[in-house]
User: Fold this.
Amino acid sequence: MNERSKPAPTSSYGGSRILLILGFVAVGALGTWVWFSRHHRAQTTAGNSAGARSGSANLPVPVIPGVVTKQDVPIYLDGLGTVQAFNTVSIRSRVEGQVLRIAFNEGQEVQAGDLLAQIDPAPFKTQLDQNIAKKAQDEAQLSAARLTLQRDADLLGGKILSQQDYDTQKALVDQLVATVQGDQAAIDNARVQLSYTTITSPLAGRTGIRQVDQGNIIRTGDSNGVVVVTQLKPISIVFTLPEQNLGQIQQHLKTGESLTTLAVDRDDRTTLDEGKLAVIDNQIDTTTGTIRLKAVFPNDDLRLWPGQFINVRLRLEIRRGCSVVPTTVVQRGPEGTFAFVISNDLAVVRPIKVAPQTEAGMSIINEGLEPGERIVVDGQYKLQPGAKVKLSAPVEAESVPGRNAKPDIATRSKT
Assistant:
């Protein structure tokens, strides 16, 4: 009786299953609605972006134009060097004595033979006088001995004097002749020593800081000497270049041409002087792989000073009639270098070949561009091939970057 009153379990299980099915249907409907909503927004955004790109593609891109120029371009090899005096002499005394006079001012320009210092000459003049007197004494003895020898010769002819006595007198005459010759040598030496008391400059140059003061005793073994005289006109620069440049330099020297060398200030812009290559060192430095060279400069304005570090530019040749553009024109891509050429207000991609020389923001074009063609100097990052361009500046000689450069562009060879 009680068991019949209990509810059947199958009816409760069927209701739960219906609720579960309804839940899955609701979740699926919600997911479908979300997917359609996002897809619609994505299509709308893509359409708007495509419309924006289509509209922007028709707008001209502002660029800065330029013109390919034709110029003569010197080709240089660049190195770092040190200025060295053409000649340097440390003035030292060759005799000992008191310095009576210093005849130069520090930093003074002197000529060869100019008086620099005077040492007390009195002791050396006294020695010279003694040697002169000694020679006079010996000459008197020699004169008497010669007279005696002449008489002995007469006596020997008359068989009055023996041969032995004659030979003895002749030997005495020869001895006195040698003594007189020694006296003359002593006189010459005394005169040389006396001349050393007057110290003169052996070359034209500039004096440095004085190393001895007037009134001091100077000796031949002193390490400082009197002063250092340095020849500044002309002057030389010793500089180095990579060893791989040696073949190029020798090739130009074989033709007999003299290679021009420029001394450039550390700012790499100001030319201090122009000279000529004088010598190439006879060996390569194996530790650095460089070759030393020496150039000579007139240094008329004294802009080069011994010990000064300087940039040196060795001119190998002058390339005539080169096509030159600002370096910013050259672009690089997967297929090599190219430039944007302006044709009918459109940016046209032009493959080019660029020389390894570049300087002062200018590049040499070997192939691809001709003088007079219009090119894009700035603004390439916004360009696509065939895009319309808007010139931001008039294409005139006065406004084109690099157009106002000097006829000879100093270029640097990359090594």
Summary: The mean pLDDT is 84.
